[in-house]
Amino acid sequence: MAGDLGLHRMGGEDDTRFACRVSYSALRFWMQAFCLDDGYGGAYGVSESAIIRKSAIWLRNLADLYPGILDWYRFYDAAGARGLASILHTLAAMRDLVKTEDGLYRCAAMHTAPAGTYARIRLGLADPTDMDDRPPISGMGFIAKGPARTESAPTPAQATSSSASAKARIRPGGDDGHVIIELNRVPRSSPDWQCFFMLTWPLRDVTDRQRRMARVEYAPLLADLLRFCGFQVQPS
After folding, report:
1. pLDDT score at 155
2. I need a labelling partner for 166 at 20 to 30 A (CA). Which of 108, 127, 193, 205 fits?
3. Going along the chain, which residue ranges are E strands?
């Protein structure tokens, strides 16, 4: 899976932590695959409980090789299901998956959505092994070439008016290929924040929303996205 997704081990990262990160990235595509398994070629949709159940089975199979993966996904308590649900809700909020009027999830056609002020994120049904033109995946997503956001970006005053004390720090990770992003508060839910969560990995466990990791190539984009959402990005 790591080879298919183009993921590399971070310096000092052990087998279990690397497996957690790879599985987190792969879950996006597995959830898409689960949504196709509705008996109607993906046209009808699959329930949230079915997607979470199938995701949990897949992760438990991985845990045969990497037992610590269940702790990272917090399967020792009810948060395991909540963690998987939060991933599913992020994909739906970004319209990587579509939630129907019946509350079911089905796949979306490939499309893009704004990522900060100057980039776009590629969403929808896609085969990550057949995209030679894409940048490397970070978290559960990758950037696509395309026009910048059509609406105007907020001015600094507008962006920070409701979160003047919101601060973020981007510092080097354990090697030259990754960065660590530390937030001093949990951001409020919005499409832009869901984009941020798609492009980063949780650091401590699947529920960690304040300490994230990303590809170093994505650091300028993520800094722009943080500023767009009202955070002051502090030097490392």
Report:
1. 45
2. 205
3. 97-99, 105-107, 111-115, 119-123, 143-144, 167-172, 178-183, 201-202, 211-215, 232-234
